Amino acid sequence: MDSNRLEAFSDGVFAVAITLLALDLAIGGPGPHQPTLAAKLADHWPAFFAYAVSFATIGIIWVNHHTLCKNFSEIDRTLLFINLLLLFFVVCIPFATSTIAAYLRADGGQSSLAAVIYQGVLEGMSISFTLLFWWAISREHLRDPLTPDQARRATIRFGIGQAGYIIGIGIAFASAIASLALSGIVAIYHIFEQTPVRPKAPPDQGTPATPAT
Amino acid sequence: MDSNRLEAFSDGVFAVAITLLALDLAIGGPGPHQPTLAAKLADHWPAFFAYAVSFATIGIIWVNHHTLCKNFSEIDRTLLFINLLLLFFVVCIPFATSTIAAYLRADGGQSSLAAVIYQGVLEGMSISFTLLFWWAISREHLRDPLTPDQARRATIRFGIGQAGYIIGIGIAFASAIASLALSGIVAIYHIFEQTPVRPKAPPDQGTPATPAT
Amino acid sequence: MDSNRLEAFSDGVFAVAITLLALDLAIGGPGPHQPTLAAKLADHWPAFFAYAVSFATIGIIWVNHHTLCKNFSEIDRTLLFINLLLLFFVVCIPFATSTIAAYLRADGGQSSLAAVIYQGVLEGMSISFTLLFWWAISREHLRDPLTPDQARRATIRFGIGQAGYIIGIGIAFASAIASLALSGIVAIYHIFEQTPVRPKAPPDQGTPATPAT
Amino acid sequence: MDSNRLEAFSDGVFAVAITLLALDLAIGGPGPHQPTLAAKLADHWPAFFAYAVSFATIGIIWVNHHTLCKNFSEIDRTLLFINLLLLFFVVCIPFATSTIAAYLRADGGQSSLAAVIYQGVLEGMSISFTLLFWWAISREHLRDPLTPDQARRATIRFGIGQAGYIIGIGIAFASAIASLALSGIVAIYHIFEQTPVRPKAPPDQGTPATPAT
């Protein structure tokens, strides 16, 4: 199977990015003029909130990437570069997360700017994933090709996810917190809405489905 | 085999988290008003202690994860998300470790709070692992299914581990150091008590066991 | 296949290095005497510029490494050490990137020095990759050996890439920004110019090509 | 093959540790009271020196680990924990490296202490690797078992490597720089002296050797 190394490298990037997220949770040690640990933790809630949303987002894009890749029958050079574009945005997520965590309560439009950056990075990731998906189905690189109906439903589903991030950009101008919360809701939406690659073989098919791996 | 990529991503997260633990060992360079290296190292013992306990804990959960995963016959989407929940807590361990190391000797209940957070993260990890185990045995996703007796013994064993972390939360209010030490003991307990997945085929079986890989 | 672990380790290093690049994007939180987020981001453009160039460079060397490795029929100890030399330079890229980002606008020849270091690291990486390629073709370690004509064209192509970095060193003395931009152009050049390992079997061959994996 | 995941996790740890080494190369940005970049780089030579030695050391232990693991016919639980012990020391290397780099020129015995810690970590890593090797040959877990003569030669070779680190501890009290240089020499020694696992099948054997993977 040819997609092994694409997955290995991508998994490495996903794993490092998701683990680096937690570096921003760090709070300094105790000191003479420092607030107590409890006060620091309470004050630090934007970091925990942003961490949870970003963890869920990277986790879900990993699950969907996994579901898509194991259905690839062939990897061409264009696919590798679209995948790199996806990873470019994934690698930006820890930066976007620490920025929104630091500026979530800042005034003068700074929180909105941080939220716009955050949503922009997620939107970039989502568009890259959609490109990956489209390239795969348009070049018939899938082991279990989608029916036109499945492809249509998948496109609608991707559109909903991306619309979520675009609405998130709009909401960012009103409230950075609401915008970040929306990203959390989009993540939860993706948990229950599966990327429709590799459908189960319908029971009326007489021949056994192609083995998946 | 379908669990390859689940393992690859999980291994990546485990590997990054376990290696990031050591970042907190760092002590600053020499300087005009700095204590000597020996004094700094002696003063820095909570970081070394917390590092050793957390390394052992992540190491053991990795070994058990490895033992469980190689027995999975099928990975479904729910399993992927339970696994993400497990990784969520694993990724929190470097944060919890640096917090308890920094506050282990702080007063005013701060050390207890740090220890409660630490034990809470380990408890969350342990519960997630138990969920992973239960899901696998309840859906008959194991290549070598457990006998009811083995499943009962495994549940008891998981319970002991989790009870250890819950007791650790209780002890945290009396002594953060004792609580951290207890986590070290739980880790050592898990070294000698194996997750009972993939039992050896009993010698009285007439047919050869299913090959493991 | 013997190159599995060479690739797994290399992928790990590539993945960590490419993800660490983004750590330098971090900007501090808001504060009483701090400029606004927008001002900080605008002032921070060298970090974003250097990040984009370095991401593209590591991404492309990964794609080429992937293309080369999957054609290896045998890995010997020398190959492992040449690969380590390549990784030595890859690991240096986050350092070189943060240095050029910090000094891109510094005066007194400091920006030139930073750009020379940056180009030197990329040149070292490029030379190591060429060594890897030469060792593989000279020892006939390739599953699909190159024709002399293909090997010649490949050598010319590597030469162009390396010349780019050497010219980049020269340009660094005039303008660090132009030098960094040139590295970006070299990266884009490599996107469209493929490492010519594993050519497609010409259509006039009567026998099917050796399967790739 | 059963050693896949042991290798994947170990490779992850090796890859992260070797890449984190370079984080200590970072030098701050320019500033009003800062020395120039050239002066900073010149002053920073212990970090570059320590980085080179540690990179070579981790790189070589990875090559030897790779050579050993691919000959494992079976992984038992004890082997997993010996491997974790090895990784424990590998994960300590970035800490030991940054400490020796920071204190290489410090006085009052501090440089010696830093060098003793550094050599101690390398010695711990080396002993763990020898344990891994002994466990594998004593339990006959190797696919290509060693002849008694080969095992004896291997033991001598490991002994030379470990003696190097122990001498390094002794030299540390006289000169931390010489001690660090000795570790570099040990690394170079290991490049040319191969772990003698998986010998080539002698030509007089009538039956073909067991395939390696």
Oligomer: homotetramer
The main pleated sheet of chain A reads as: none
What is the total domain count of chain A? 1
Report the structural category of chain A.
mainly alpha
Biggest interface = A-B, 34 and 34 residues
Overall mean pLDDT of chain A: 84
Flag low-confidence runs of chain A.
Answer: 196-213
Q: Kindly estimate the percentage of residues of chain A that lie in beta strands according to DSSP.
A: under 5%
Helix content of chain A: 55-70%
Number of strands of chain A: 0
| Rg over CA atoms of chain A | 20 Å
Care to give the gist of this entry?
Chain A is mostly helical and 213 residues long. Chain A is built from seven helices and no strands.
What does this structure look like?
The structure is a homotetramer of 213-residue chains. The first copy, chain A, has 213 residues and is mainly α. Chain A contains seven helices and no strands. The longest helix of chain A has 29 residues.
